[in-house]
Structures are given as structure tokens and as C-alpha cells.
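Practice set, problem 2.
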Amino acid sequence: MQIMEDDHPSNNCTAENLPLYKFYASVMIMEFTLALPLNLSVLYLFIFKLKFWKSNTNNIFLFNLVLADVLLLICLPVKAYHFLNGNRRSTEGGTCKAMLFMLFLNRGASIAFLTVISVDRYFNVVHPGKKNFAKALKKSPHISFLIWLLLLPLTIPTMLKSFECCNSYGREEDTLVEDVTDTLREVVFFTQILIPFFVLVYCTVRIVNRLKKKTVGDSTKLRRAVFLVTSVMLVFSFCFLPCTIARMVLLIFRIKDLQNAENIAVQLYDGLMVLSYMDCLVDPIVYCLSSTKFKSLYLTTYCPSLLSKDAETAESPNLTGNNLNRKCKNNHSHSRVQQI
């Protein structure tokens, strides 16, 4: 009986379809190679150029978002190494638990700060008069520290028993304590994605409706703002919802003891988890480089040659008195859009 239990596909971490997992590994290596330099370059600007701790609320949350993504990216080469060697995780217990802790902590932090940034934008655009909430958000360093602190106890269940290989939940031989631990782990996994998703959808819909009703201001900037908040929701949906649905299907197959279907679901779930790491590459582009000021700072710091032609073009035309008056008149109406 013991041999049969050990041979069950959900009780080991062997990658049965090795070519597929080698492909997954190559995708993670590509994500790491592209995303790490981009995130580190953005992190450098936040620390040494913008001095984020002295900047506005949004910059502090963005810094923590990029920091979480960098810490998550560090885990990808290790995970890719195991995939290349035909294992879904490390065979060493300590390494496996450390990897799970880092992956879930920093992935949860990335989602949490993404949600907080969306809520901040929601109040800036839809409810600009809510002074009480604005005062609370000004304490963004405290909120950031609190988010990291709250994520620690939520991540601990991933270290108590192997989660990545889906070994335990739904098995008859589990004890009551193991069932409670596994259930808590699954609840954390689903809630940290589904709750932020619904919050993000609500904030996005309200922001888009509010921006579409604006009649004053540059229409190009308004369209850009609508595109930005919509793209954030789409990126979240593309990166995180597929792996969540795949895990739901996997649990159903395991509880019903559909072994062949579970084998396929496991491979699909691992692949969609690899897809979710793409968020680390997209975050700096959507949140940071979409800002005109930040993009200009980025290009000035790293690619000054690209700005030379734009600078020459900008210096050539002269603004007339009427244009200057219009520009001053619209500055106040643009301020809300620029915060997005």
C-alpha cells in the first residue's frame, strides 16, 4: 500500500513530460533575463533619482511593487533549474520550503501593492474630495510596512507541507490538522487573487466612467489615462486568473480521484504559474514607463541619445500668447489625469 501511495502522481514531484517542462524552464529564463534588468533599472531611479521616500504616495507604492517583483524574479532561475532536471520542485526539503516562501510572499506582495495603487487612483479620480482617506494614504510607508507584515503569517502555511506538488489536499489519509493546514493554504491562494481582482475591476470601471465624463482637458491625455487603467485590469486578468482557474480544476479532479485528468491538470497548472511570472516584466512598463515624466527620466538616464531629436523638435516651435494662456488654463484640469 505504501508503494502505491508513493507512486501516485500527486505524491511526487517528477515532471512526467520532460520536454514540456524544459519549455517552461526556457520561458522562465526568458522572463528572468528580460525582467530583472528592467526592474533593477527602475529600482535605481526610485532610490537615487526620485528619492521615493520623499516623493508622493504613488511612488512609494510603486517602489514596493517593483521590489516585490525583483525578489520574485530571483527565484525563477532556481525553479527553472529544477524543471530542466525533471523535477517540479527541489528534492531538498529546506530549499523547497524556502522557495515556496519566497514565491508566495513576493507574489502576494506584488498583487497587494498593485491593488493599493488602483485604490489610490480610484480615490484620486472618482472621489478627490475624500480628505480622510487621502490623509491615510499619505502614511504610505506605514501601509507598505503593514502589507509586508501581514503577508508573513499568510505565507507560513506554504512551508508546513509541500504545496507546489499538490500532494495532500483531498487525500483520505490526511489527518485533521493536515486538512486544516491544506484548506487554509488553498483559501490564501485563492483569496489573494480573487479579492484583489474584484476590487481592481470595480476601481477600473469607476475610473473609466469618470474619465469619459470629463469635458475639460486634453482628450489625448484622457484617452491615455483610460487605456492605462484598462490595461492594468487586463494584465492582471491575463497573468493571474488562468492559474487560479487551473488550480480549481486541479482540486476538483483530485477530490474526484480522476488520475489521468489530474496529470494533465498538473502540467497545465505549472505552465500557467509560469505565465503568471510575466507580471514581473509587465509591471514596470504599465505602471512606471507609462508615465510621461518617469519615461522621460528613464530615457534621460539610460538612453539620452533617444531624446536628442525630440529635444530639438520641442525647441523649434514657439508658443503664442493664446497658446500659453490655454496651457495655463488647462494645467489644473490635467493634474488629475497625470496622477493616473
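Problem 2, part (b): a different protein.
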Amino acid sequence: MTPPRRVTALAASFLPLLFAPAFADSDVLWKIVHDRCAVQTAPCLSVNTAEHYAMLKDLNGIAQFLLIPTDKITGIESPDLLNPATHNFFADAWAEQGDVDSRLPHAIPRDGLSLAVNAQQARSQNQLHIHIDCLSTDARAVLKADADRVGTDWAPLPDAIAGHQFTAIRVKGETLGDFNPFLALAKTLKDPAKDMGGHNLVVVGANFAEGPGFIVLTDVAKPGMGGEDVQDHSCAIEH
């Protein structure tokens, strides 16, 4: 689907910033959401004022979208994410799957959709954003093989994905409901306020023997390795 002309034109005005070196302006996403989307929606596709987030088509990939809070939340290290009153942005991101599907010839199967947040040292922008996109074919194969070995307590995933040795947990249900991956990760850490920023966090849809659910993945980021590594922005699984 071709993006609406008004969105394309406005988004184009940010091209020099978005493709500039990461150190050039780490607040580009915040400026887009705060200065433009919160005022007139475009270049975002939508703004959910009740849940405090906007949906923006990423310039990278054919169907990748970013869920970006409309409040200033720097990233996974933000103390705001440890507040149970903060909206469950991962649950919101899963509910926005239709935006991704609209750019593809077929809807992504449940176990082909992924939501990823990069660790503080593995990102270029200082505004929280969840990458919503296709899972890579390799990652999908690994998780399909390991799905029924993932339990309801955090444990190492048997196989590596894109060089990551993830720890994983199973979540049951069609939606994430009240399960907040940020809070679930924080509960495993000795000092969440200090340690959250070093972690990647990924949510992938799953089909377990007993029904639908999710596999949540996390690891301590190595240099240059983000949670986004499990995704395929060309969406090969749909071609």
C-alpha cells in the first residue's frame, strides 16, 4: 500500500535527520512526535491520545512501524517504565498489528510478528520506540522449535538467535493483557533502575500446544547488538 501523499511529503522533510549519523541528533523521533504528530497527526499514521502514543512508519523496511510514546520517555532505562501506572506500550504495539499487515500482501501469522526495544547502548534515538515488524525466518524457525520448551519462569532459550543468547518466558493468551514486559524484566533484576538500560527486550507471538501466547526474550546487549536483530525489515516470511 502506498503511504498517503501528505504523510510521505511530511516524512520526507525528516529524511536528512533520520539518515544522518546517529550522533547528529538523538532527539529526532521526539521532535517528530512532539512537534508534529501531537499537533496534526502527520507524519505519524495515528495518535492515540488516551494511551499516550503515536504510530510512525519507519523509513527502514517495507512494513516496519514504530510505536512512540507522546510523553518524554527516553528508553528502556527510563524510571517511568517501572511505574505500574504507565501504559503497557507492548500491549498497545501488539494491538497495532494492522498497520504492519496493511503494507504486506498477506497478514503476518501470529508467530511471525515481533516487537523489539533496543538496549540503551544499541540505539540511536533517545525516545522510547518499539519496533513492530516481521520476525526473521531464522528467528521464527528457532522459536517454533523451542516454543514448547519455554516455560512460565525466565530461563535461557536453548538456541541462539542472530548471535543473541536470550533468556525467555512464556506468556499465555491472545493478547498481552495485564502482562507488562518492562515490569516483568525489572522483577528479575537486582537493581532495575541501574540495570534495565543494558537489556534488549523482545516480544514474539507464539502458538503453543495449549493455545496462543507470546515468547518474551531478553539479554544483556553486546556492543552493536539490539533486540531489533531478530527482525527482518524486508519481511521475507511474507514473500
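Answer key, part (b): The domain at 5-238 is CATH 3.30.428.30 (HIT family, subunit A). The helical segments are 5-12, 15-18, 28-40, 89-95, 97-101, 137-146, 181-186, 192-195.
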